[in-house]
Amino acid sequence: MTSHILSWIVFTPLIGAFSVLFVPKSATRWIKWIALAVTGIVTALTCCALTFFQSAQAGFQMVERASWIPQFGVQYLLGVDGISLPMVFLTAIISLIACLASFPHACGKEGREKEYYFLYLLLETGMMGTFLALDLFLFYVFWEVVLVPMYFLIGIWGGPRREYAAIKFFLYTLAGSLFMLLGILAVYFAAVPHTFDMTQLVGMPRGLFFQQIVFMAFFLGFAIKVPIFPFHTWLPDAHVEAPTPISVILAGVLLKMGTYGFFRFSYPLFPEATYWFRPAMAVLAVVGIVYGGFVALAQTDFKKMVAYSSVSHMGFVLLGLAALNANGFRGAMLQMFTHGTITGGLFLLVGVLYDRTHSRDLNGFGGLGAKMPNYAGFLTFFALASLGLPGLSGFISEFLALLGSYQYSKVATGVSTIGIILAATYLLYMIQRVLLGKLNLKWAHLTDIKTQEVLTLVPLMVLILGIGVYPRIILDYMVPTLDGLLKTLEGAIR
Amino acid sequence: MNTVESLKYFIPELILLGGAFAVLTLDFFTKQKKLVGKFSLLVIVVALGLIETPAQPLPLFFGLFHLDAFAHFFRYLALGAVGVTILISLGYSPLEKRYAGEFYGLFLFMAFALILVAAANNLLMIFLAIEFVSLLSYLLVGFLKNDPKSKEAAVKYLLFGSVCSGIMLYGMSLLYGTAGSLELPVIGNALFYAPFKPLAITAVLFFFVGLGFKISMAPFHMWAPDVYEGAPTPVTAFLSVAPKALGFAVFMRVLATAFGHLTDVWSPVLVILSILTMTIGNITAVSQSNIKRFLAYSSIAQAGYILMGLAVFSLLGRDAVLIYLLVYLLTNLGAFTVVLFVEGETQSDSLDAYAGLSQRSPVAAAMLTVFLLSLAGLPPLAGFIGKYYVFAAAIGGKFIMLAIFAAINSVIAAYYYFRIIRLMYLAPATGPAFLSPSKTLTAALWVLFLSVLALGVFPGFFITRILG
Fold this sequence. Notes:
The complex is a heterodimer of chains A (494) and B (468). With 494 residues, chain A is mainly alpha-helical.
């Protein structure tokens, strides 16, 4: 029944990518529909996996195992648990939406649709593989596979400073991941017998000093991806220069690869180092939340504002991670999911406006609420979700993360709430500048949001509202695994 | 083993030698130089087909030709490199004006010489074989004798090479004086006794000079960019891989057999030289504007990575050298094949010729991208397997600093490899579309491309074949 469904999820986009290569360059409609169909199939497969998944169980399910490089004991090992399944679902849904959103965007470069959708589908394979791989070697391969298509997608279809943004993104991430590779090798050689298999590596004893060093190596890889405060400088460049659908993928999925790495690898492999680094993580989280919020407040570029708000919101994930308790973990995990949907939606809305005006200058807009009433409704919905309005999903996740961190450090929690106030400030200020006030006559001809654009936003709104009202629809999948992880951590410290 | 007995294990080499003379003769009687090229390709294929795996190490010709699994691997490597080089030379237009037949003949001699290097286990043979390769290299570099750059490159190469060989020969004389024998194993035993240690250290350093020149190890790498730039492009492609690979082969054999118990002395030296080589190569490559010089510096950096395996010198480290050499050979030959194609279309080696290549020739651009990504060591390509091996050797041997330097260097390397990729995909095209590459170039490209991909995706299969 469940045979190889994970492999199909990972490799269907790859098959799609290669079938795109065989379509003649001029048949752009075919290329687009193939890409949409493939991402749709992947979403359907993911929904199948959701139904097969026994949410009450911790531990890996639907495991697929085959020997890949016997000389190093490298296996082709896939599996899902409550941490990876929501991420896989998020990836599938965001990929589908961003693919639909790509339809008008990829036309910017005449005749290069083929390259675009080839790279796009390759990227999806990489992302899915990253979330599903349980073998460190395989994980690293998929992690790197994400980089190259992303470089091209930003570099070819991006904004004016695309080349700089693309190479900066690439080099930052590569530098981090190479240190992670050294860490992976250290783990491999320290394990007896040598193995990359996560199911065996968890629970093996390791010295504290070793754990600290290797935790740092992994940390570099993951922190750059998240991005955590001092490593975040690639993010505004990449997010702003990338075309809208790719910004959505960046914010919606790629940032989560970093925090997912903490949950999946750093924490279970190095439990003692986790406790040791806990204060540092909390400090970085708080700095990220507050710093990101203040910088977002200062932006006049709409997209840059959303990009910096990501830094702030991802800080809550880190805060929940540093809390090291049930509520913190649930908040962090949920925040990863909700941030993907909310910020993805905000980037789409920035794109909607940019397509019409070719401007992202917040001070240049004004009064669009009357001109584009439907657009105004969508934008307000996503802005309110992002600032944590009760009843929408952002509130639940940030509340849980703060609840968790309160048990750990009252100071950190207190300072972090500044971030929520800041979020309300910059988002409402944005709404004021874009939707309210006097209409700038330059934009008198603007048309309201189109059906196709609405189609990309509605699924996200359903998820945001659904989780906001009844968070258990997704928390039930996560909780047993997260509790299991907590038990592993507490067991190791005793 | 005496001469007559040895001959039956020496058939592929005899075919090469006979083929080389046959090519020179054939060259007299035919005006169709391409035919000569095809014939030499046939010779290589026949020789490849006749290679037999030795069941145990065979000391052929009274031990002067030591045919073991190690030499066997390098036989394949040498023949493969020469075969691909001849294949891509077939349509190389500057060659048509000058003695094309001799060009192919020299390459067959080169194949023979390279195999001698791989199987040399004796100071005399090592020196003679290396000099054989060097002389042929000088000739091939200066082959376009009306081209001043080619001439300059040949003279530079000759002068630099002679000095380095001389120094190595001096080191050999010290060893002979100590041990009273030319055989590496005997020397190894003699050096085991303490009084000879200073002498052994001196000798090993002299070896570093001579062999470091061959593998373009810093600080003996200065010849490489000029020679690579001046030499005919197929020769550059060949020089960047085959003599380098065989240089590593000798290096490994000498270090393992003669200086095996002095690891604590030369290993730190090699660590420093390895870091120096990759850093100099990478940093200098960043600012190059000529593709051949660019690839020259990149190949210096790659030599630095391979040296990591030698510096660690664990079992894994030695495996790493072999795997990396194969990976590097395939990838670099592939990159040079695209360079050859672009040079043929634009008559230019400048990096600007690559602007917008993705529109002018999508296949060539895609392939060069794959080769460059493989050189940068990104999965799932062959280059990653090589990188993985040397990193694993370094971490496994607790050479943490070396691994960290290599990681930083890999980021620098990725930066400049992406300069080319950026030009090909992000810059606008500067001219009309290219014609599709000739049949021979296409064949070579696809073979190399598919092997780079296959080695990256199914490394286990290849590793088993290579390391047994």
